[in-house]
Amino acid sequence: MPRDTLTGSRIRERRVMSGLKQSELAKRAEISPSYLNLIEHNRRRIGGKLLVDIANALGVEPTSLTEGAETTLLATLREAASDSGMPEAEFARVEEFAGRFPGWAELLANSQRRIETLQQSVEALTDRLTHDPHLAASLHEMLSTVTAIRSAASILAEPGDIEPEWQRRFNRNIYEDSARLADTSRNLAQYLEKADTDASETNAPQDEVDAVFQKVGFHFPALETRTADVDAALDEVGEGLSHAARWLLSRMLTRYRDDAAKMPLAACADVVAAIGSDPMKFADRFGCDVASAMRRLAHLPDDVLPNPVGLAICDGSGVTTFRKPLPEFPLPRLGAGCALWPLYRVLARPMMVHSELMQQSTRTAARFRAYGISQPVGPTRLAQDVLFESHMLIVPEPMRDTHEPIREVGLTCRICPQPDCDARREPSIMTIPGRTKL
Q1: Has residue 276 got a pLDDT over 80?
Q2: pTM higher than 0.85, yes or no?
Q3: What is the CATH number of the domain that holds 270?
């Protein structure tokens, strides 16, 4: 239902909340109760002086009656409806529902937001449980200590007499192991509490580099000129990094400078304004390869590219070497992502640009246009194998009716609810009842 036809529903809601009878409000607005009844059931449009009179009678601003539910509330409700597989006929009535039952609508929206937050927490914890070396070592130590305590306690509990000296030894072992278990548990709890801090993001050189890019917003103004000094930029943003992380960051900054030299920032602004975020058209305008265009788009500042894009890069082994996630399309910090992503699929088809619509199965109904390409790294030499590198650009796609297939992908198999996926490599710990494949 169009937004401007919901004014009557909001008038009725306000009247009920105020404890007014329909006849009383009609009298205050100097109209007949039957006409007010038609208005409240959205059978008569309302505006001008009558709208002001009714708003004054209800003690509210006229805009609160004419404006629909907040955009964020409607968007959240649409996401919840899409996730549950609601029929299109019901999906189209979301504004009417929000207008007539604002309290229930807000309750449902809050539940949807909480579900999304919990999904993000599960994704992050799953990533860490699978690949975090510190967490794995801590859990191993805890299990070993518990086993030792159980063994000593089982000996003491067995029937028969035990020499006093051996009893003291077993009791001392239990005491010492219990103290160690308490320390390990406390340290592990503190470590998990710091999951969102910088300290938890620097377990490896790649994590340190990711933290630098996140801190600067993936844009380095100092490298936007042709005379840019990579070493100076490295000293400016790389303070405190390990030697390995500085080596990785130096390579990335050098590539950034080279891309900026081929595609100057001022020219990028004009091209983006004309063609948007299409890497193919972007590459054609500047006469460069598609992978360079993808990287340049991902590094553009917000004032040039208002709608940010995501980017993932991996080498020929599938190891992620660069990641710029989007809020609605996260990328695993450790380990490989979904095998259905074009990032990995294009490795089998070098130099071929792949494009498709995607939607993450455990996320909201947001859609994305993914572009993927696998290109050689370095020069081609006689009788030597060519090394390839894969790029995947992730561009937010508006929600609209389309006949183009939409591929449902996951983040990782462990938290992907699709049970019959041919690319599955381990069982899932999550399911979404009622969710159907697109």
Answers
A1: yes
A2: no
A3: 3.30.450
